[in-house]
Amino acid sequence: MSDFVLVERPRPHVALVTLNRPERMNAMAFDVMVPFRDTLAGLSRDNDVRVVVVTGAGRGFCSGADQESPGRIPGIDGLTVSTIALRSMELLDDVVRTLRRMHQPVIAAVNGPAIGGGLCLALAADIRLAASGDAYFRAAGINNGLTASELGLSYLLPRAIGSSRAFEIMLSGRDVDAAEAERVGLVSRAVEPDGLLDACYELAERIVGFSRPGVELTKRMLWAGLDAGSLEAHMDHEGLGQLFVRLTTRNFEEATRARRQGRPPRFAD
Ligand SMILES: C/C=C/C(=O)SCCNC(=O)CCNC(=O)[C@H](O)C(C)(C)COP(=O)(O)OP(=O)(O)OC[C@H]1O[C@@H](n2cnc3c(N)ncnc32)[C@H](O)[C@@H]1OP(=O)(O)O
Predict the structure, then answer these.
(1) What's 163's domain CATH number?
(2) Which end of the chain is more exposed for a tag (fewer CB within 10 A), N or C?
(3) What burial letters (b/e) apply to 80-108, b meaning 16+ CB within 10 Å?
(4) Ligand 1 proximity of 243 Cβ (cutoff 6 Å)
(5) Is the pTM of this model over 0.80?
(6) Is 67 touching ligand 1 by the criterion CB < 6 Å?
(7) What is the CATH number of the domain that holds 256?
């Protein structure tokens, strides 16, 4: 479908989906995210697939919004800048939604940095395993002069690790390494990088051995239990806040420039 998204079947009934833009640390360019979302939706409908593992090619899991070549989303010709921004946010929200709605359990094999939207992707998976020493997490919207509350993060992170830690991590923009991620429950296990995929497959094979409706309904009920409010409504609120800061400041441009120049960003607003 796209060279940016690879699909393999490493074990019976197990699909491995790899974000494949290693030179950009698998940033969320639209021409990566559209096939990623469509691939996931297709696998969800594939009755032969009982577990999906998601990972990143190369050194990164996913480096969040693409700051170099974000690409274009389909069907935006003739729209205003504000509407294009809205559609962009909706597309990325849709990726999170698609992950959440998959029939099958999704295991994130976090092989390297999961930054900004990349952290959101990991959190939208049902289970997370991380490569010790290589994986780390950052709620990077805040580092970019935006909000860290995007793509469900302010909904998903407190539910995963509790509100005290979520507030601290989202407001500090600091890195959380794999060891800490395991300790605070952001991932269920940190494993040696070489054994990461095998650990995911081992877990997947266990799940494949159980009743399909038993597994699907357990997943659904776990999420239903966590959904005290509604993720849909929450993402709408988050998206509006993020768009407001994105469109009314030049902070993201400054953060991109600063990263290219290897200096800390200076936000005017
Ligand atoms: C709605 C969603 C919003 C968000 O997601 S906001 C978050 C936006 N993302 C970020 O702020 C992350 C920015 N990137 C970084 O902080 C670092 O990078 C990493 C932690 C991901 C990795 O650091 P290191 O291991 O030192 O690698 P490297 O040399 O910085 O990056 C390798 C190559 O990957 C490109 N790259 C990294 N992140 C992005 C990105 N987000 N968009 C586009 N390209 C990216 C770089 O430029 C470089 O490329 P070259 O080798 O050509 O210099």
Answers:
(1) 3.90.226.10
(2) C
(3) eeeeebbebbebbbbbbbbbbebbbbbbb
(4) no
(5) yes
(6) yes
(7) 1.10.12.10
